[in-house]
Amino acid sequence: MRVSTRTSLAAVSTLVLFAAACGADEAVQEPEGAAVEEAAEPTDEAAQEPDEEPAQEPEEEPGEEPDEAVEETAPEPEEVTAYVVGYHWGWAVFDEDGTELDVIEVTVGSEVELIAVNDHATHAIEQLPEPVAETITSISWHDRAHHDMEQGHIPDLAEAEGVPLGEALTIAHDGHDHIGPAQDHALLVAGVGVEAFLDSHGDEPARMVFTVDEEGAYEFRCTEECGPGHDHQRREMLQVTG
Ligand SMILES: [Cu+2]
């Protein structure tokens, strides 16, 4: 008969329901079986807690924590290596498999390693991972320059510099009016401040390692006078997201 003395609403209502439907003795027996664990609790508070708290907390915590956990873990800083080619007049980036990327995408706080070469530096290119070297040597960088102009990555040099692109490439590669060729480039990652000289006769790739702390699109710029298209050898090649 302990159940009948409890003031727990749940127990009382259960008792009343059963009492209404059954005989008094049965009503005592049935709820006792169902509520025997509750009845064993020493106080009303203790008896209610298992009814309420377990019903709410497990629903809220598993529902919210995984979402937060996903959002917090998604922008984990990474270590990213990309291979960069400087050519007249642009930049191309590749992953270690030799797949060309439109842009290098990293999260804030990531450590970025750039391994950069001049498209003329055959010995330096040979030092790159084989798939990267194969891809770079398979590309006609002359054709790439024309493609860049068609795509609007660089302006029409005839209009912008007074020299048609084909002639501008000849000037840069072979020299012009005894000025000499201008085949070297230098890569500056604007906004980060790292810079490397890309010697057209270099034997080794240039290597830059830096950490990016702010979101945004970072421009690669040439800082070595490299002919008529030099001022246009700048493009956003690094995208940093939060
Ligand atoms: Cu330049």
What are its keywords?
242 residues, alpha+beta, Immunoglobulin-like, 2 domains, five-stranded mixed sheet, disordered N terminus, binds copper (II) ion
Q: Mind explaining what this structure looks like?
A:
The structure is a single chain. With 242 residues, this protein is of the alpha+beta class. It folds into two domains: 2-73, no CATH class; 79-241, Cupredoxins -  blue copper proteins (Immunoglobulin-like). Helices cover 42% and strands 24% of the residues. The strands form two sheets. A five-stranded mixed β-sheet has the order 3-2-1-5-8. Helix 2 (9-21) packs across helix 3. Residues 1-43 have low confidence and may be disordered. It binds copper (II) ion (CU). The site of copper (II) ion has 7 residues, from loops.
| Major beta sheet, strand line-up | 3-2-1-5-8
CATH superfamily of the largest domain: Cupredoxins -  blue copper proteins
Compute the CA-based radius of gyration.
Answer: 36 Å
Label the CATH architecture of the largest domain: Sandwich
Which bin fits the share of residues in helices? Answer: 40-55%
